[in-house]
Amino acid sequence: MVKKQSSPTKIRGHEVKASAEKPQYIVESDKSGKRAAHRPAKLSKR
Q1: What is the pTM for the complete model shown?
Q2: How far apart are CA 14 and CA 37, in angstroms?
Q3: CA distances for 21 relative to 4, 13, 24, 29, 32, angstroms
Q4: pLDDT tens, position by position, for the chain (46 residues)?
Q5: Strands, E assignment, the chain
Q6: Among 3, 17, 29, 41, fewest CB within 10 Å belongs to which?
């Protein structure tokens, strides 16, 4: 996990609809190094 996003932003041209009430987490792939946003319910610890 890179950071908790609590405001709208864009990642590689895709709009991330994060808010203080519904934050999303920015994660970075170990293999490719690319970043993506995910809702907390879709993440699991490794």
Answers
A1: 0.73
A2: 10
A3: 12, 23, 10, 26, 30
A4: 788 888 999 988 889 999 999 999 999 999 999 998 888 878 877 6
A5: 3-5, 9-11, 14-16, 24-28, 35-38
A6: 41
